[in-house]
Specification:
This is Glycerol uptake facilitator (Major Intrinsic Protein Family). With about 220 residues, the chain is mostly helical. It is built from nine helices and no strands. The protein starts with a helix and ends with a helix.
């Protein structure tokens, strides 16, 4: 990438912050307006998340690649399409941005700023769901090699769908998972549940890289 690293890191942090503000904020709004109907609350959480992903990738893609996700950053590095020396700064920017996005959502809805979620998300089904969700996200991204302009819409639609076909509601992102532990709201996850989710996501990332290498070799992107 030709953009200076500092500019790319700012884009990654800002984009991830907006993503988490949308995830947490829409979860709060959806639950507030659903009248106790959890299906409506989840729908209210799903649509804004998928929509904001399209917008954020269109905005920040030309600057930083719009990863907003340590799994994506690691996957691009593993394919030789991203410099390993930039991986740690990218992940740090994503994590900081994610937490700031959660805090921004709390401020908007006048909730306590610092929280820890009490919502336990555990079990083999949810762990496997995170594995599948992340694997599918990587296939979606690398599957757009020949049509990169479609990537923002493909990613947004994939996450929208995966909210509903995975038992975990498709976190598929270690930074998102960690940040959501700091919000005791509809979209939160208890800190005790985070490690297993992240491990499942990293496993899905590894398989995604292996399969994508067979289907869409990195040299085709070049």
């Amino acid at each position: 990438m030709t953009e200076p690293l500092a500019r790319r890191l700012f884009a990654e942090g800002l984009g991830t912050a907006f993503l988490l503000a949308a995830v947490i904020g829409s979860g709060v709004m959806g639950l507030n307006l659903s009248g106790g109907n959890l299906a409506l609350a989840l729908l209210g959480n799903t649509l804004p998340t998928g929509a904001i992903l399209v917008v954020l990738i269109l905005i920040f893609g030309p600057l930083s690649g719009a990863h907003f996700n340590p799994a994506v950053t690691l996957a691009f590095a593993a394919r030789g399409e991203f410099r390993w020396r930039d991986v740690t700064p990218y992940i740090a920017a994503q994590l900081i941005g994610a937490v700031l996005g959660v805090l921004a959502a709390h401020l908007m809805f006048e909730l306590p700023l610092w929280q820890l979620s009490l919502k336990t998300r555990t079990g083999a089904g949810q762990w496997f769901a995170e594995f599948i969700a992340t694997f599918g996200l990587l296939l979606t991204i690398f599957g757009c090699v020949r049509a990169p302009s479609a990537a923002p819409y493909a990613v947004g639609l994939y996450i929208t769908a995966a909210y509903w076909f995975t038992a975990s509601t498709s976190f598929a992102n270690p930074a998102v998972t960690i940040a959501r532990a700091f919000s005791d709201t509809f979209a939160g996850i208890a800190p005790v549940s985070v490690a297993a989710f992240v491990l499942a996501q990293l496993a899905g990332t590894a398989l995604g890289v292996i399969v994508a290498r067979q289907l869409w070799p990195a040299r085709e992107r070049a």
